[in-house]
Structure formats: C-alpha cells, structure tokens
Amino acid sequence: MRRTFSRYQPAERQFEITRKCLEVLLDFRNPVGIITKNHLITRDLDLLKELHAFNCIQVFISITTLDPHLTQIMEPRTSVPRDRLRTIRELSNAGIPVGVMVAPVIPALTDHEMPKILEAAKDAGATSAGMVPLRLPFVLKDLFETWLTQHFPDRAQKILNRTRELHSGKNTGPLYNPTHFERMNGQGPWSDHLHQTFDLHTKRLALNERKYAMTTDHFRVPPQPGDQLRLF
Questions:
Q1: Where are the alpha helices (DSSP H) in 30-153?
Q2: Which domains does the chain have, with CATH numbers?
Q3: DSSP three-state, residue 205
Q4: How many Cα atoms sit within 13 Å of 44 on the Cβ side?
Q5: pTM above 0.90, yes or no
Q6: C-alpha distance from residue 166 to each of 96, 173, 195 (Å)
Q7: Residue range 120-140: average pLDDT?
C-alpha cells in the first residue's frame, strides 16, 4: 500500500494537488515515498511530520548537478542546487527521513560530480542515497540528441557514445536498453565504474548505513460522514 510521488511541479503552487494527496494519505496513515527536485515540498512540513509520527514517510531530493548554470539549461523549472540542499537540511532538521537521489547521472557531463553531490547532501543532513543512470526510452532519445547538439555541440558525440557504452557495453550499441534490470543499472565497464564510485563514496560518507522501513501497522480506514454500520 505504499505510494510514491514526484509531483512538486510549478503548477503545484496554485492547485496544491500533491498536498491534497498527502492529506488523504495521512487520513489513512498510508506509507508514501516522495522524490522531488523542488524546495516547495517544505511547504508541506506539517503533513510530513504527522506522517512521520506513524513511520509513513520517506523523502529523496534529486540532485543532478551542483552547477546552477547547468541546472538552468537542463532543468529550468526546478529549484537550483543550493535550494535543493537547503531542502534536505530543512527536512532533516524537522526529523523527516531524507536522502539524496543522484539522478539522472549523465555520462561525460555530470558523472564526475557524484562524489561532491553525495558529500554536499551528507553535510546537509541526508542519511541515505540512491543513483540512477540516464535513461532515454521512446522519443527521449531524439529529444536528448537535439538538446545536446544545441547546448553542447563540442561534447555531444562523446556523451552519446558514453551513454551507449553505459547501456549496451559498447559505443556502437543503442542509447537505451529496455531490459528490466539493465535499464536502471546499465551494463559493461562504464556501468561498473559508476556503481563502484557510488558504493565507494556512500560507504566513505556513512550513507545508507541506517535502513528506514516505513510501515502499514497504523493503516486505517477513517470514518466518513453518513457511513452505515460496517459488518467487518
């Protein structure tokens, strides 16, 4: 009965759809995991604290790069890196279990930043970490190639070749492997290097040492006005 959200979009400020979902989940005391790039999540600290009282919340803040200029090029409608780290700090100070998601890791563009991202997140209060290599299913492949040519013409081919190596083990392979395990982890030497780097630095920083397990022990169906007497 766990739910996962990644919905702090710009329109959330006006419509508060994610906040309303959290209110429903709190009513039922239903576990929920949130992955977001937006500092706006701190608006809902009141609900997150109540969910945490029932061991029903875990948050990951996604950080792709620490470079604010690159963030504006890649993710123009998201919080800048400084604000994402501030979000981790505010959640941690409020007692909310919070981690960092280094994602997506873009070969030959952001992969070298992984150690610094993990270290900055740890300093801000993160206790756990995850990592996801760049994935380009369906039309994203074409969009990514166009984006690279527009913004990084001098490095575009190197990034594309490295992405192919990450997903197929050779630079002449496809940009994306839809096989269940490989699509999340990649394969070949570059994939191994990426995961070894992640494991090395999470261990060095003592991230992922404490496993936080959400629970459905407090799940309930709240009474509704006008409910008839229940048999069960």
A1: 45-52, 68-74, 81-93, 114-124, 140-151
A2: 3-135+186-204 (3.20.20.70)
A3: coil
A4: 25
A5: yes
A6: 34, 9, 11
A7: 96
